[in-house]
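Re: [ENG-882] Designed sequences occasionally contain unexpected residues at chain ends

Forwarding the minimal case from QA. Structure tokens:
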């Protein structure tokens, strides 16, 4: 495990009303278990709606509430467009992921 404990989530497909709660739940569980660094790789996201964006913001708040760090990496064109249009791009720290 990384020091500090890090969760890297690779999100693919659609991040919408059907999948957002699963992402939020996974991040909340790991955060509660002491994971202090969360990185979401969003390169594979083909569609994101307002519920998906809300989930990203909620994940960020969840991690911050426990004193952890939250960042996104490898934004897909779909995610980049939505965060740009909604003015939320500045809300996320961006991190370059190294190959595993």
């Amino acid at each position: 495990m990384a020091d500090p404990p890090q969760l890297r989530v690779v999100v693919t497909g659609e991040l919408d009303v059907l999948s957002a709660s699963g992402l939020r739940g996974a991040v909340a569980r790991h955060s509660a278990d002491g994971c202090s660094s969360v990185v979401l790789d969003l390169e594979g996201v083909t569609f994101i709606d307002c519920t998906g964006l809300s989930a990203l913001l909620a994940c960020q708040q969840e991690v911050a509430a426990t004193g952890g760090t939250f960042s996104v990496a490898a934004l897909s064109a779909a995610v980049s467009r939505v965060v740009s249009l909604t003015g939320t791009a500045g809300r996320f720290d961006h991190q370059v992921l190294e190959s595993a």
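QA comment: On inspection the terminal residues look reasonable. The first helix runs from residue 20 to 32. Proposing we downgrade this to a documentation issue.
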